[in-house]
Amino acid sequence: MKVLIVDDEEKITNVLVSYFEKNGDTTYVAHTGESAIQIADKVPLDMIILDLMLPDMAGEDICQYVKLNYEIPVIMLTAKISIDDKLKGFEIGADDYVVKPFHPKEILVRAERLLPNSHKKQIIQFGQLKIHKNERRILLNQESIQLTQHEFSILLLLVENPKKVFSRDDIIKKVFGFHTDINPRVVDQHIKNIRKKIKNEYIQTVFGLGYKMDEKVVENEI
């Protein structure tokens, strides 16, 4: 997701940027309200993390501006702890409200839960694997994994259909196309390469049939 982090404290923005980027997200940073609005007007954002105490304007005013002009979830960050402050934040359109100090992982989890369903469909989670479909990117334990185009397509096919067994011919037709003459053993080599790169037996060999995702691996990770 594309997330804008608005806070006048660089330590806070730096930590949050680190967590979101390790998660595979794109971050934008603003230390003033004016720059935050400029970014919101230029970039199609998916999320805004907004501190209420800014040097040039109130965070509440920024939230109101965003909600009047865009459909972007806003998580407010503040040192204000009274129930009246929280209610005011929700009244002007905040989607969530976090009191400082906080753990950055909490912000990340809250942000992902607020993502629109249309965006969530572009991110698939299987165990410790996270697949960003639009960006054709794979993360394993928040570390980027480099797959070839065909390796990515094969893994995506299996993850999107975790209960289905795909034969070599099935994979060739869906990944390489119907009008192609490829040795089925090429699929075996791609599977071997994927397994080596993700360093886990996520892909199960079903004897005599083909390949599928091993759901037992995920169960054991929980």
Q: How would you describe what is shown here?
A:
With 222 residues, this protein is α/β, with parallel strands linked by helices. It has 2 domains: 2-120, Rossmann fold (3-Layer(aba) Sandwich), CATH 3.40.50; 123-221, Arc Repressor Mutant, subunit A. The protein has helices at residues 10-22, 33-42, 59-69, 83-91, 104-114, 117-120, 149-160, 168-176, 185-198, 215-221, and strands at 2-6, 26-30, 47-51, 74-78, 96-99, 123-126, 129-132, 137-140, 143-145, 203-206, 210-213. The strands form 3 sheets. A 5-stranded parallel sheet has the order 2-1-3-4-5, with helices on both faces. Helix 7 crosses helix 8. The protein is elongated, with a radius of gyration of 22 Å.
Key terms for this structure?
elongated, 10 helices, alpha/beta
Task: Supply the CATH architecture of the largest domain.
Answer: 3-Layer(aba) Sandwich
CATH class of the largest domain: Alpha Beta
Q: What are the secondary-structure elements, in order, as H or E?
A: EHEHEHEHEHHEEEEHHHEEH
CATH topology of the largest domain: Rossmann fold
Mean pLDDT: 85
Biggest sheet details: 5 strands, parallel
Q: In summary, what is this structure?
A:
The protein is α/β, with parallel strands linked by helices and 222 residues long.
Helices and strands in order:
Blueprint: E1 2-6, H1 10-22, E2 26-30, H2 33-42, E3 47-51, H3 59-69, E4 74-78, H4 83-91, E5 96-99, H5 104-114, H6 117-120, E6 123-126, E7 129-132, E8 137-140, E9 143-145, H7 149-160, H8 168-176, H9 185-198, E10 203-206, E11 210-213, H10 215-221
Parallel strand pairs: 1-2, 1-3, 3-4, 4-5
Antiparallel strand pairs: 6-7, 7-8, 8-9, 10-11
Helix pairs in contact: 1-5, 2-3, 7-8, 7-9
